[in-house]
Amino acid sequence: MFKISPLSLGIIYLLMATLFINVAISIVSNDGWTFISGVTIFFATINTVSGIRFIQLHIRIAAEKRKKG
């Protein structure tokens, strides 16, 4: 099994958030505000927050490594 860095995970989550945002915009422009558009926006929000937190974790880990050595 291999380890995935927090930076890679953060980028993946932000890319997924971008995808969900684009899908939500498409749904809202075609059908208006529906339950599915709300769910899509919810997932985009969760992915955005997760991506940002993973990138912050990467920055904290890098700072600790610089501090130690």
Percentage of residues assigned to helices: over 70%
What is the overall silhouette?
elongated
**Number of continuous helical runs:** 2
Low-confidence parts, pLDDT < 50 over ≥5 residues? Answer: none
Radius of gyration: 16 Å
Strand content: under 5%
- Class per helix and strand makeup: mainly alpha
Largest sheet: none
Head-to-tail CA distance between termini: 28 Å
> What is the averaged pLDDT score?
95
Give the H and E element order.
HH
Number of strands: 0
User: What kind of assembly state do the chains in view correspond to?
Assistant: single chain
Describe this structure in words.
Helix 1 (6-31) packs antiparallel against helix 2. The mean pLDDT is 95. The chain is elongated, with a radius of gyration of 16 Å. The two termini are 28 Å apart. The chain contains 2 helices and no strands. It has 69 residues and is mainly alpha-helical. The protein has helices at 6-31, 35-68.
Strands, helices and their partners?
Layout: H1 6-31, H2 35-68
Features:
elongated, 87% helix, mainly alpha, single chain, 69 residues
Task: Tell me briefly what this model is.
With 69 residues, this protein is mainly alpha-helical. It has 2 helices and no strands. Helix 1 runs antiparallel to helix 2 (35-68).
